[in-house]
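The protein record minuted underneath.
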Amino acid sequence: MEGKVVVVNLVLVVFVFGVGSGFEFHQQQVLIPREKTCPVAEDILPCVCTVSEELLDLRLDCSSVQNEAQLRSVFQASFPDTDFFELVIDQDPADPNTNLMVMKQDTLGNVSFEHVRILGTKLVTVEAYAFSNSYQTLIHLDLTNNNIQSFPFASLPRYVSLQTFLIEANDVASLHHIISISLQVLSVSFNPLSTLEVSTLTGSPALTEVYLGYADLMTLDPGHFTHLANLTTLDLDSNTITVLEYQAIVTPSNTISYLNLNSNELTFVRHDAISGLSSDATLTLRNNALTTLEEASWLHVFQQLYPDGVIDLSGNPLVCGCDLAWIMLDPQDRYRPLITDTTRCGVDGPILIFLDQAFFEQQCQP
């Protein structure tokens, strides 16, 4: 029996009222998902196949494979069903007995997957067409914590259903133009990127979450995010950005609800460097080198966050001088409550939001 569904013919008996009343017979086809079957267990060792309780989803765990040749031999076995829900290869990178270093075009045979998770392996190279049988089905691709240096980014448009792509904690040194009309979540954190081309993300307009933390980024040029009308989360944690230039982080509308710039080396944020925050967003800038919050640079940021947003500036050496007067003396007190109570003057000084307003009234009036 082939295919993913079974066609069942149902005969409906309907009583018809009125002149010539009686019974009419109607035939209707109903599609019922077909039960799935695992391969013979001994044929696919050391992989293990399981089927869900509903007998509809197949999962394949190949965490015990030692190398690519052994993995390829598994997929040369007879598979009664070739449409799998998930492939998992979850290994300990310190295990000397595991040496999966490459995924080739024929490694996975003719089997397709909706979810692929390859974690903690010694994988260095993912060749073009390595997951080609999953072009139509792959939804979630997680390649976290391997040694990947080479990945066929140019093939991403072929994965027409791909929503999540995680390739964090690898050795990817550059990102090519990421093109995908379906991709929603992208994480390339913990890779030595150093730079990011402005065009990298413009071909993926459906992105809602982008993670670029710990990526050795030193600058952000204008234009990286201007095509991302659905962006809600942007993580730039622990890079080495010193200045946020004009229009460094700009989206078409106010969709960003979480922006993480923690643990960079920020000393200055230029006017209109950030645009696209929602009015209830969290902007976290902990552990940078910011000393002042000048109105010319920061007013637009606070205006976007008002009335329900949060800005965390803890761990910055803020001098808390008259640069704060526009916040502390605002007649409507709109901006002070947006600052967290962990934000202090200096690093361990008084809590900013509890500073004596009288000081600013006496010392900072024009």
Notes: Confidence is low (pLDDT under 50) at residues 1-17. DSSP finds four helices and 20 strands in the chain.
